[in-house]
Amino acid sequence: MTKSAKITLIKLLIVLLLSGSMLLLPFEEWGVPINTVQSRVIALFVFAALMWILEVIPIWTTSVLVITLTLLCMSNSSLICMQTERYDSAAIKAIVADAYGPEANAETVKATQDTVLADLKKQTSLSPAYVRTTINNTILAPVVTGKAENAEALKTAAGKLYDGEISKKIDNLKLVSVAKQKSIFGTFADPIIILFLGGFFLADAATKFRLDINLARVLLKPFGTNPKYVLLGLMTVTAVFSMFMSNTATAAMMLALLTPVLALFKPEDRGRAAFALCIPVGANVGGIGTPIGTPPNAIALKYMQDLGLDVTFGKWMMFGIPFVIIMLLVGWFVLLKMFPIEQQKLDLSKELKGKFLTTPKAIVVYATFIITILLWVIPKQYHGLDANSVAIIPIAIFSVTGVITKKDLRGMAWDVLWLVAGGFALGVALSETNLAKDMINAIPFGEWNSTVLLIGASCICLFMATFMSHTATAALLVPILGGVAGAMMAAGSMDTPGAVALLVTVAFASSLGMALPISTPPNAMAYATGHIEQKGMAISGTILCLLGLAITIFMMVGLGAIGFFG
Q: Which among 205, 532, 140 has a CA at the least distance from the CA of 371?
């Protein structure tokens, strides 16, 4: 066995040991009422976190495992050996009998018991309130249909469900909820997945018809030949592309364009490191500007939509773009101070040659790009389409016109979509098994200060994002914090602006983890150029991480204070 295989095996054993131990923890003794299915969700959460952090296997395959395990072990279509008793049939029968009283007709009581149990068996989500309502409706059914001979007695029986000992018995029922099979499979075609797919079509079409290089040439021209301003120009162009393309694809494209430029620097010129680092900084920061710029944004947007928080594509850009501009200027200043440039002149126009294509398909790409961006930016009330629906337009146009072919389709980053879907599946498991709700109810979030929560959550998120996938970080934390926000809003300790600020800050913090080569693929690619030392990347990245987080928190609190989020 090779050394690499041994390390992988050790990592896998650690993951299995720690995640498996979650199934044995005495939650009941700690005052946290966790049922069998919920303990499996906790184990799955730990399993996913460790697999994403340690990267025992590619992170997208971990997401596939998450979806598979959720389906097989925690759904209403799970393996027989994984199915568990979801309610105490004897206790429910006793409650029905107690409600009717000893004088009731035995056949009527049995019929009600059978009807109630049959209804509960069909449901995936069970709660005392649902059990109470089901029994109530079944008892009163003859009254509603006008077939009851003893309507008053039935109303009295139903009334007992809401008061006294019978009500307490219902509240103390141990009920087990499971995830819906349809919800789990639905994560593969969530509207946010389509939003990302639309972004992939736009990015591939732009590259295929040289729209990216031609735009880069045009956009860099105003920055002249002064190396300091060319550096700012490269960061800006990279950030603009990253708003609508994969951060990784953007960094790869820009580093390829930069390769001949870096060769112009003298070996001892530290400016080489500044130019190599400006690309990952621009890519990581630029993706924050739009909902489709990076997966954490899309994940946060999904949970804001689930909470009924109105954050549109255009509204996101209204605070995302200013943040990107501020961070680009901060990053530019930090890079110039840390890596002084000795080169006196740079002329990138010689390296970026070509012209805009005028073929019919190229014109289709230009027009579709403009239309799509405009529809994303213009508020929904003016055209009726949300960002997810707009994303299907480039997919349809490019498919029908042959701009994107079957070969192009095979080359798209499907692994990213599956990674995002795995995060959504984890959210489904947390939500539909009622684990998030029960855990949140066990913690007095209603007494917490929303600003303290925002700061604490964003710091944890930034730390995690430094050492693991940004998407995986958001996929782990956003479902939990989305539930926390919902609970705090219900308790009155958090308003709508606070909930938006919390989820947006976590999304931003996920993208700001860029202190190490392993933090993001753009960082790794820039480090691979050989022009950057890990120490330099760590120092500059840490400075930008912390400043970015401080700016994010200040911006979100400020926007909430002026009523920007409603």
A: 205
> Which one has a higher pLDDT value, 96 or 258?
96
What's the start-to-end Cα distance of the chain, in Å? 60
**How many other C-beta atoms are found inside a 10 Å radius of the C-beta of residue 134?**
20
What would you report as the CA-atom Rg of the chain, rounded to the nearest whole angstrom?
28
Distance CA 174, CA 160 (A): 20
Averaged pLDDT, 24-40? 84
Mean confidence (pLDDT) of the chain:
85
What is the C-alpha separation between 331 and 277, in angstroms, rounded?
10
Is the predicted pLDDT of residue 350 greater than 70, yes or no? Answer: no
Global pTM exceeds 0.85 = no
Number of neighbours of residue 563 by Cβ within 10 angstroms: 9
Query: What is the mean pLDDT of the segment spanning 352-371?
Result: 86
Give CA–CA dist 98/89, Å, rounded.
14
The full DSSP string for 41-106 is: HHHHHHHHHHHHHHTSS-HHHHHHHHHHHHHHHHBTT--GGG----S-HHHHHHHHHHHH-TTS-H
75 phi and psi, to 5 degrees? -115, 175
Rounded to the nearest 10°, the torsion over CA 386, 392, 398, 400 is: -130
Q: What is the pLDDT of residues 395-423, one digit of tens each?
A: 999 999 999 999 999 888 788 788 778 88
d(CA 72, CA 124): 15
Q: What is the dihedral of CA 313, 315, 321, 327, to 10 degrees?
A: -110
Q: How confident is the model at residue 341 (pLDDT cuts 50, 70, 90)?
A: confident
According to the model, what pLDDT value does residue 104 have?
84
Which string of b and e fits 48-81 if b means at least 16 CB within 10 Å?
bbbbbbbbbeebbebbbebbebbbebbbbebeee
- Whether 227 contacts 271, CB under 8 Å: yes
Model pLDDT for residues 93-102, shown as the tens digit of each residue = 999 999 998 8
Q: Which long-range contacts (CB under 8 A, 24 or more apart) does 129-132 make?
A: 131/87, 131/92, 131/170, 131/173, 131/175, 132/161, 132/162, 132/167, 132/170
Phi, psi of 57 (to 5 degrees): -130, 165
Tell me the C-alpha distance between 375 and 5, whole Å. 50
Summarize the confidence of residues 470-485 as an average pLDDT: 82
Which of the pair, 526 or 529, is modelled with greater confidence? 526
- The answer to whether the CB of 426 falls within 8 A of the CB of 473 is no
Tally of residues, the chain: 566
Dist. CA 13–CA 17, nearest whole Å: 6
